[in-house]
Specification:
Muramoyl-pentapeptide Carboxypeptidase, domain 1; Lysozyme-like; PGBD-like_sf; cell wall biogenesis/degradation; 8 helices; alpha/beta; 33% helix; PGBDSf; 15% strand
Length: 225
């Protein structure tokens, strides 16, 4: 069941731009209520379409056909200003600043169900189910290295690869990250850290060692299909 808590912070989506991205965030505040209050505060000028509490309660703040203000300065697969083409889900977690912790099973189950419903309504390809840190790797860390991306992918939400191909040479890493969707004008450790947070559980050191390079190649191969 979804509870409606409307936020005033939304506007019309630009005409001609499809809804083809799903962006997952953590709230990064001390409580879910504090986050919801901010996302509904007209002065804050930020919002998301949904908030998922730690107990699995889902709140709808902005209708999906409206543009919410969750992505900020963002880039993915050649597109920018991604609020126009995305749906944003804020997942309650204090984040790295206030005591980052694992996401409870009930919360992850609710996130998964919500994502499946959204994907049933919009033509969002798996490669466009992304983290806030994927689309703004120089600014954001969320939802972070403790988030269960693999579990979501096993249920049809996003991409995952357990493949272990031969690691490419170091000079191939940046083009492969670009093939996945990352902007390539940032420092390589920044991009590698963002990649690890999504596709290498528990790791976020920015080191493009052989296992990281192999996983980057595996995910890039999926994104080409």
């Amino acid at each position: 069941m979804i509870r409606d808590l409307p936020s005033p912070n939304h506007d019309a989506r630009p005409e001609g731009i499809p809804i083809d991205m799903l962006v997952l965030h953590y709230t990064g505040m001390r409580s879910g209520q504090e986050a919801i209050d901010r996302l509904r505060d007209p002065a804050a000028k930020v919002s998301s379409h949904y908030v998922v509490e730690e107990d699995g309660t889902i709140f709808r703040l902005v209708p999906e056909d409206r543009r919410a203000a969750h992505a900020g300065i963002s880039h993915w697969r050649g597109h920018e200003a991604l609020n126009a083409r995305s749906i944003g889900i804020e997942i309650v977690n204090p984040g790295h600043e206030w005591g980052y912790r694992p996401f409870p099973a009930l919360q992850m189950a609710a996130v998964c169900d919500l994502c499946v419903d959204i994907l049933g309504r919009h033509p969002i390809p798996p490669r466009n189910v992304v983290a806030h840190s994927d689309i703004a790797p120089d600014r954001k860390e969320d939802p972070g290295e403790l988030f269960d991306w693999e579990g979501l992918a096993r249920n049809g939400v996003g991409l995952w690869s357990d493949a272990d191909p031969p690691p490419p040479d170091a000079e191939a890493v940046l083009p492969l990250l670009g093939a996945i969707g990352y902007r390539t004008d940032l420092k390589l450790p920044v991009l590698v850290t963002a990649f690890q947070r999504h596709w290498m559980p528990g790791r976020a050191d920015g080191i493009a060692d052989a296992p990281t390079r192999a996983r980057i190649a595996a995910v890039a191969d999926l994104c080409r299909n």
